[in-house]
Design goal:
81 residues, elongated
Length: 81
C-alpha cells in the first residue's frame, strides 16, 4: 500500500506543478490579449485607421470593386506594349 500512496503523492505534486504552469500561461495570455486589443484599437488592422476598416458602407450596400483589365495576347503582337 505504501507504494501506491507514494505514487499518488507524486502524482499530486505533478498536478500542482502543472496547475501552476497553467496559471502562468493564463496570465501571460491575458496580458498578450490586452496588448493586441490596444494595438488594434490604436492602429487598426493592417495599419489602417479603425474607421477605414469597415468593408460595407453604413447604408448596407455591398461595396463595388472594379474589375482589372489585363492585356491579352491575340497572336499579332506584344500585348504589353
Amino acid at each position: 500500500m505504501s507504494t501506491s500512496d507514494g505514487k499518488s503523492e507524486e502524482t499530486g505534486k505533478q498536478l500542482v506543478a502543472i496547475l501552476e504552469q497553467l496559471k502562468g500561461i493564463n496570465s501571460t495570455l491575458g496580458e498578450h490579449a490586452a496588448a493586441i486589443c490596444r494595438v488594434v484599437s490604436c492602429k487598426g488592422i493592417m495599419g489602417l485607421p479603425p474607421s477605414r476598416q469597415q468593408e460595407t458602407p453604413v447604408d448596407g450596400r455591398v461595396p463595388r470593386y472594379h474589375k482589372w483589365d489585363f492585356p491579352t495576347f491575340d497572336g499579332k503582337g506584344n500585348p504589353t506594349i
